[in-house]
Amino acid sequence: MQVKQRCEVLEEQLVDLVVMAMERSENDDASNDECLSQLLWQHLSSQVIYFVLFQFASFPHMVVSLYEKLKGRNLNKGRDHLMWVLLQFISGSIQKNPLKEFLPVMKLYDLLYPDKGMIPMPDVTKAQSTHGVAATCIWIHLNKKAQTDTIKPPRPTPHALQEHCEFLKQSLNNKNLSLNDYKIALLCNAYSTNNDYFNLPMGKLVESIYGDSKHTTLLPGNIVASAPTQPLAMSLLDSLTVHAKMSLIHSIVHRVIKQAKSKATIAQSPALIETYSRLLVYMEIESLGIKGFISQLLPTVFTHNAWGILHTLLEMFSYRLHHTQPHYRIQLLSHLHHLSQSPQTNQNQLQLCMESTALRLITGLGSFEVQPQLSRIFNEPGRPGFLSNESEELNRVLVLTIARAMHVTGVDSFSSTWPREILNQIMANTPHNWSPNTLANFPPSLAEFFQAQPQHRDDKNTLKRNVEAEYKKWKTMANENDIIAHFSMQGSSTVFLCIIWKNLLEENRGITPIAYKVLDRLGPRSVSAHLRTFSDYIVSELNLNSAGGQHFHKAIDSLNEMVWRYNIVTIDRLILCLALRNVDEDARLCYLLIHMLLLKPQDFKSRVQEFVKENSPEHWLQNNWHEKHMAFHRKYPEKFYFEGIQDLSSPIQHQYLPVYFGNVCLRFLPVLDILLHRILEQPSLTTNNLNLFEKILESLGVLYKFHDHPITYLYNTLHYYHKILVQRAAYKRRLVTTIWNAHQEIRPSTWFLTEDYQRFSHEESLEWVPDLDYYVRIIGRLVDTIDGKSPFPNCDWRFNEFPGPAAHALYVTCVELMALPVPGNVVGNSLLDVVMKSSTQLQRGKVMSWMNAVGLVLTALPETYWISLNNKIVETICSLPLTVQGGCQPFQVFNFTTSQTVFAEQHMTYLLALSHAVWHHAGIGQLSQLSVFLRDHLKPVVKTEEQFLYVCHLVGPFLQRLHSERTRSLMELVVELYEILVNVDKSCDHLRYLDPITDFLYHIKYMFVGDSVKNEIEKIIRNFRQALTLRLRFISHINLEEAMTPLAPPMST
């Protein structure tokens, strides 16, 4: 069992952050609800509550520390905010802890509330009123605790709070409380530990979102749901204490579970589902929130076969939750693969939702999450199945995600063993091949794995013969039962969709009822296998009949009818399947087919245009999502079952499941991500002389307005396909500007691209070589953001792609730099020059902040960018004064802090400090390359002691990290240091720094490597000059007599 332990350092940091927030509040406009101070307090409150509730910080100690740091400061403007933060913890934990633990709050009250008269009641129509009354709420909870424990209150409620107390008492007598102001929130916050009073305001909240059986509304598919459609506003939820929010979410979960068990026919109200989604974003109620969602609610719903509720929960996860910890997402993925094996879930709408959710979960994994999460869960007992047993598409997408993660993190440079077991299991479940164009972008070890395991595929002629044979049976068999039995037989040929398409082409009479019955008997999981065969078949058939002409267009029309008229396959599943097939030899035709399906007919384009025009992705600010959702589905109803199936004489009936958030446009977004990547992999792919990549972005790029992680998608694309895109500046600019333009209506122009790049995006020419001032500006923006002076617009980071402004600034900076029409090494050199050449323009006291920013950016870019640092190091080591023995005082010159303080720093001093900043932020995959850098680039050029000491200063700070994370790389680096010292020993007549050098080598032995490299270095030490060998004899275990034996004199140069 994990034991929570108080962390005093964290505790003090939290206290300092609170004090800083108090200082900011003194200078802030309190009437502005959207001001930076408000956002700061909101975020700070969440952090303090989380760490105190989970016992990483002690509440009494924090309050005493706050009192000491605020004493005498006269920081009163933020006092209500501070009391609000304290109220959060007090209301949630006072019932379980002794009263004395909360009494230090009284000292804070005396300090911050010296008011002699009564404090007036704040305006209850504003959310700020809940903060204004927080101090009063604390006193009410303290008095209730004293009453419960039958002890005398330490002191009566202060006279200054009397007006607040009276207002709250009067409000309790008002039975007609309204949601138009914040009285309900005030009462919930004040009386959450007093059930006699708490039930009234909380009852009003749940009543407003639960509804009753008398008033109903409709969901898509004519599903009847309870009537309330307007969720509780985020401003109201933010105004509730953690304790009140926990009561609310507990009530909602209890109601959903009760409905799941009772098999209720009326679906939950849209207001309840949206409100539940909003409550799940609160990190401080994680145990009842997302943790309960994954570990309690989902299993209960599945156990009771409540498929409608399951569908709803998956929709919430797909379209409403923004920041969910990775282990919860992997846990849900395992649940989904387990659920997909159940016969009860083998129904079209639910299967489509589960596959779509799984696709989002896989593609949404961060590059630095993939290895720790997948390797952890794969090695757990019972090995939960985060791999699909049947879906080739999901497993292919997982392989692509692993490839991207290995590339971005540089993991392939030191180890490729971790994914091997996972890949072996994938190939056992769903054997498949990858095209040479895709393998060319895989990390080498991944490409070698698949090249070593080629999978047999039926050739086109064999597939054609199979389809012809089955089609002949379809045409000749007479008995309906025999036809259904034959074509729906498990393990038989998966060509039934090919037969339907061929029949549509030749008969032109629509689809027969028997075909519907076969499809229904097969079920969606089997139809997926038929879809893969169909994707291969249609490409080969159109190829055999040549692209173009009447037959070709008729074939495309029949395919469109299967999607939009007969609802046999959905557009997102069909395009995903086509895009992921191994069709290098028919690539042009395959993507022409995709082009004809997506862009020629109006069916999908009109849906996209309508949805984007009428809706906003900022769902947390809306109260009318349901109305817009229903308007779209009324105009474009989505049928999940085969057209006409309800009209058959057979007893086949299908129950639609509630749809609260989703539609075909949102489902298509992850497919669009994958499709664009696959097009990038195809060299010189054109369609009717028009670039397919640009045509798709032109027609469908507006969908990126609703993308969960648009900047991360850009970052991953530009990073992973850097080698391809280096020659395709137009592709880069088009992709970046498409996503920027998609957000123009909802974001200020400064949210992403700099003004420089915005000007470039409007020019016809692709020629642009930014000057150094451009790089100073873009790095300066990041420096300011990290320093707390963000130039980016304020927003609710709980619903943002990134959790804070600094992360946002880093990613948008990297995206813009990778999108420049400039080679990576040029950009890398320019970033280094921001510090190396522009240091006179920077404030001397902030130089380290600029180095830190450059380090963050460089290590987040592909290798061709950050390798520029290695070249500068080699250049510096090969230049004066390091190349001259005795040319400088290394221990003074190399110390950046000391030399900068006295204005004595040199170029090499700056480079050394900048190298440390870069490598400090490097991933272990990048850092493990240090030994290779020493071997291939530094060893041939280092001849003097000064050069060797510079190398030691370069690598010294990173020995501990290599020792902890990559011991093999550390040992290789140490051996290289000794071999470099051989060159120095041979090249120098006299060694002036013998003692510091040997001290450093002993430090390495006793702190990091021990005897692990003894065999390699002993041979080297024996060949050093006598003085050096003598000093190093305890490393090599050479006895004194051997060390004193004279060797041939060292050669001098």
From TrEMBL:
<keyword id="KW-0539">Nucleus</keyword>
<dbReference type="GO" id="GO:0006357">
    <property type="term" value="P:regulation of transcription by RNA polymerase II"/>
</dbReference>
<dbReference type="GO" id="GO:0016592">
    <property type="term" value="C:mediator complex"/>
</dbReference>
<keyword id="KW-0804">Transcription</keyword>
<dbReference type="GO" id="GO:0010628">
    <property type="term" value="P:positive regulation of gene expression"/>
</dbReference>
<dbReference type="Pfam" id="PF11573">
    <property type="entry name" value="Med23"/>
</dbReference>
<dbReference type="GO" id="GO:0005667">
    <property type="term" value="C:transcription regulator complex"/>
</dbReference>
<protein>
    <recommendedName>
        <fullName>Mediator of RNA polymerase II transcription subunit 23</fullName>
    </recommendedName>
</protein>
<comment type="similarity">
    <text>Belongs to the Mediator complex subunit 23 family.</text>
</comment>
<dbReference type="InterPro" id="IPR021629">
    <property type="entry name" value="Mediator_Med23"/>
</dbReference>
<keyword id="KW-0805">Transcription regulation</keyword>
